[in-house]
Amino acid sequence: MRKVFVTLLLSVASLFAYGSERMGQDTQIWDFHRITNIPNYDTFGKLWTTLQGEYIATIALIAVIAVLSAFALHYMIIGPKQFSHDGKKIYAFTLFERLFHFIAAISWVILVPTGFVMMFGATFGGGLFVRVCKNLHAFATVLFIISIIPMFLWWIKRMLPASYDIRWMMIVGGYLSKIKRPVPAGKFNFGQKSWYYIAVFGGFLMIITGGFMYFLDFNSTAIQGLFGLTQIELLRISAIVHNFLGIVCAVFFGVHIYMAVFAIKGSIHSMISGYKEEEEVYILHSYWYKELSNKKQIEP
């Protein structure tokens, strides 16, 4: 009996040894699991590893610190712009505009912090918290998809470049001066237009690349054929583009929040009530003010 037991034990040990040896060989048993057999596995491998392991998180951290520092300096040195709330009010945004803007705002409020949590997943300890953030990120993406189409269609005409945008850039919209004088801008200034294009077109690309990463096991044969990429190449490129665009979007979103909440006192209320103060429109959106005056929609 003892000999039989020893023989069985040796047989099992031999099978484990055989299996370990075959893990490194090209056999029908192990082909599916061998990572080296994935087509073009090394393509973008070094770039991916370098960017993800050494630069992406660092760039994101530097961007956040730089933007917050700039906000603090601007608030302490220049201070917020304040406009009279005793004058006439100008109807700026319809209920429909405010609704899809609200949905977009909620989505970005969730997308940005959860995106950073996933980027610094190891720092946050991984596990349940990071997984919850991943699911919240996906949910917020759905909200953004709902808002992006009406946002694009409703505002695209007002967001087209204009000659006075160059002058707005030259004076940085007047935000570096304490003096209140009319600024060359339409209903949306160059800063808002820039954020619009980043949010809409950059956001659309973020949705696509995020989808490639979120649905890792989807059947992407058609997409791979269209771009001439394997799934691992598509995944790596998507991650690189998504991360860099995410940093850019986060910076612009931060600027947008600062301007609406802190840099211009009461500005955020226009997206709640739909009305802007007349003085604010006259100073910060002078070309739109002239347009409204010419149409007799306000008294000059």
TrEMBL record:
Annotated compartments: Cell membrane
GO BP annotations, alphabetical order: anaerobic respiration; formate oxidation; respiratory electron transport chain
Membrane-topology annotation of the record: Multi-pass membrane protein
Signal peptide (UniProt feature, chain positions): 1-19
Keywords on record: Cell membrane, Electron transport, Heme, Iron, Membrane, Metal-binding, Oxidoreductase, Signal, Transmembrane, Transmembrane helix, Transport
EC number annotated for this UniProt entry: 1.17.1.9
Gene3D superfamilies: Transmembrane di-heme cytochromes, Chain C (1.20.950.20)
Enzyme class: oxidoreductase
GO molecular function list: electron transfer activity; formate dehydrogenase (NAD+) activity; formate dehydrogenase (quinone) activity; metal ion binding
Residues spanning the membrane: 55-78, 99-124, 136-156, 195-216, 244-264
Listed GO CC annotations: formate dehydrogenase complex; plasma membrane
Domain Cytochrome b561 bacterial/Ni-hydrogenase: start-end pairs: 93-274
Cofactor section: heme
The UniProt record lists the keyword Membrane: yes
Pfam families reported for this sequence: Ni_hydr_CYTB
Keyword Cell membrane belongs to the record: yes
Family: Belongs to the formate dehydrogenase gamma subunit family.
NCBIfam families listed in its UniProt record: formate-DH-gamm
Protein name: Formate dehydrogenase subunit gamma
Species name: Campylobacter jejuni
Lineage: Bacteria, Pseudomonadati, Campylobacterota, Epsilonproteobacteria, Campylobacterales
